[in-house]
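In response to reviewer comment 3 from the previous cycle, which asked for concrete evidence that the modeling workflow produces usable outputs, we include below a single protein chain processed end to end. The sequence was submitted unchanged, and the resulting structure tokens are shown without manual editing.
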Amino acid sequence: MSTHPWRRRDGFTLIELFVVIAIIAVLIALLMPAIQKVREAANRSQCANNLRQIVLACHNYHGNYEAFPPGRLDHRGGVTWAVLLLPYLEQDNFYKQWDVTHLYYDQGPNGDAIRRTPVKTYFCPSRRAPGGVSISQDTPDTPFPGSLPHYPGSVGDYAGCAGDHEAFETSGDSATPPRGAIVRARLPWRYTRTTPPVILGQQISETRFGNIVDGVSNTIFFGEKHVRLGRFGNSNNTNDGDGSIYNGDIFPNALRAAGSSRLLALSPTASFNNQFGSYHPGICQFAMGDGSVRQIPVSTPGSILDRLALRDDGMPIPDF
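The workflow returned the following structure tokens.
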């Protein structure tokens, strides 16, 4: 009989350690889908809150000016609704850095820092974090002394709804203005100096509560704009549309259309078509004129999108 005292073994054997690691890996694999669903639900909720803040800021703007903010002040580079709404999003100090009588490209010696400053409310957390800037196409149509070939500016994930098609928004037709809720300033645009660098006069908004004939609860004001995966910061009218959200030079930077010819993007990889679209599976979120936020399926027929995007078509909206 051994006289050595029994000693307790410390730690795991190598096999036991592998078994524990395998069990932990299986548990993590089982939990990941649930964690991702919780994270996406939180992101979707934050995105909806962003849209709600934007449309309520639009209401407060209307309270001061008796009109909704123009989607963009002109097509040479006048600033967009994303600048005009800053005081109503607790960004008054940032707003005061902008000179809205000057173009996006002409903001003085601190212009680069101003243009690059992000606003968290303008970013959907499912898509990206604040901080990205445009990398192409934010270029003056009419160069001026000292102008640059590109002016990087903060991007954003939301756009005003200009109607069911952008044709009138981009054509410069003063007789037939766009029929969305958030559209360019009324033509002819006003200038106090027309030679470069131009100076804008007091522009007039096309829309106010009285123009939303179909009712604010039935009319899209803002939504998530489609930006193709891997094309962040690229901006032009035909391929990407992700220039600076502050720059009204290029229509899709801050405005989009929804309708039969502008269906919602089915996924982040869908082709760009000046449309709305999100990184939330199966839905795209929109702020209606009454301050509510609706999750609209990306498969929604164009005929229904037409009715939601137009402010004055007089057509009832069926269940969808």
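DSSP finds six helices and seven strands in the chain. We consider this sufficient to address the reviewer's concern, and the full set will be provided in the supplementary archive.
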